[in-house]
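Dear H.,

Thanks for agreeing to be a second pair of eyes. The structure we're designing against is below in token form, covering all 364 positions.
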């Protein structure tokens, strides 16, 4: 059975062109292994393994039982002792993966594996606390505090088969917030019929986004779409990543670029809706969705993750064909190509383009 091993998990890893005095050895791939995990375990990176083993499909797939050439770690006596790393803690949420957390915190997956004494498979579970670099931990706490300012509490009646993690995912909350709001321990069990207080993001209380103001009708439509998405089942970040990569390849768009745009837009979160009524993973507004529908020859439902990704990818493809450069196409995705040509890139557009380009390099 093929084991999916994605270069996404190689975020921030350096490119090692040499292996040092240790030389090379072989490693037999086991079920559940990933290329990034194998690389981290042997103190190298994904691209080095891909080149050394002539892996096909950009190294995205290897099979259990395959034999890979891997670097031999230098003897302990020769290795310099790494400087101590100041650390904090990160609580794992449902759907989290080592690769996704690494991307969100701007650290390498190898760093997370090493700090938490995890093997190459990097298996984690919801509620687990991971050791992360202190700077990354502070960034998570700051973001959480900012988000907390816009929370409201709704009541939820537990259904058969519910878990706190599933409820948090469905309503756009966090497990820790639900436990805290109800005075529950993380090990507590919930039962059907039980009433829980669930902190969720409040409705949009403003009509501005990125310095632009939107009509009340647009903001109201965005609220309605966000409520609709809260009731829908949506795939987690890793499944969404695969949907984006497959869709981009099908339409002839660089998967790394499509993944970068999607991550910058929504962090691969289908439930994200902006006050401008930009929907889902690719943050497509309804008018652009109608344009994308005409491009593919069928009506696209932007609330459906597959259709949403299709819309974003075909729009990106059209912009890449029409724009004078890749950077101008990316600016057009954010600002509108007509506006970019007429007025140039706004300051926030330049920041957006730079972030997407850096993400594309990491994800390539």
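And this is the sequence the design step returned. I haven't edited it by hand at all.
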């Amino acid at each position: 059975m093929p084991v999916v091993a994605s270069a996404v998990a190689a975020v921030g890893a350096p490119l090692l062109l040499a292996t040092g005095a240790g030389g090379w050895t072989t490693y037999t791939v086991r079920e559940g292994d990933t290329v990034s995990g194998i690389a981290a375990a042997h103190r190298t990176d994904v691209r080095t393994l891909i080149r050394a083993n002539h892996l096909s499909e950009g190294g995205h797939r290897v099979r259990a039982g395959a034999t890979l050439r891997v670097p031999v770690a230098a003897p302990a006596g020769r290795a310099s002792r790494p400087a101590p790393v100041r650390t904090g803690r990160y609580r794992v949420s449902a759907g989290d993966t080592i690769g996704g957390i690494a991307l969100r915190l701007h650290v390498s997956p190898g760093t997370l594996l090493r700090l938490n004494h995890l093997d190459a498979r990097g298996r984690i579970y919801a509620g687990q606390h991971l050791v992360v670099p202190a700077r990354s931990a502070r960034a998570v706490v700051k973001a959480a505090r900012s988000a907390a300012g816009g929370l409201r509490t709704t009541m939820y009646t537990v259904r058969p088969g519910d878990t706190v993690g599933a409820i948090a995912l469905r309503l756009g909350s966090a497990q820790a917030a639900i436990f805290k709001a109800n005075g529950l321990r993380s090990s507590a069990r919930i039962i059907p019929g039980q009433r829980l207080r669930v902190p969720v993001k409040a409705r949009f209380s403003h009509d501005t986004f990125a310095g632009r103001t939107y009509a009340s009708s647009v903001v109201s439509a965005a609220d309605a779409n966000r409520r609709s998405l809260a009731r829908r089942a949506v795939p987690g970040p890793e499944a969404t990543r695969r949907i984006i990569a497959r869709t981009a390849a099908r339409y002839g768009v660089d998967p790394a670029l499509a993944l970068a745009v999607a991550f910058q837009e929504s962090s691969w979160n289908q439930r994200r809706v902006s006050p401008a009524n930009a929907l889902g993973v690719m943050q497509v507004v309804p008018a652009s969705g109608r344009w994308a529908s005409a491009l593919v020859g069928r009506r696209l439902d932007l609330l459906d993750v597959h259709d949403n990704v299709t819309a974003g990818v075909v729009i990106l493809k059209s912009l890449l064909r029409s724009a004078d450069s890749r950077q101008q196409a990316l600016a057009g995705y954010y600002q509108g190509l007509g506006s970019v040509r007429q007025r140039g890139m706004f300051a926030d557009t330049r920041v957006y383009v730079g972030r997407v380009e850096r993400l594309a390099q990491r994800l390539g």
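Two observations from my side: The chain has 15 helices and ten strands. The two ends are 24 Å apart (CA to CA).

Warmly,
E.
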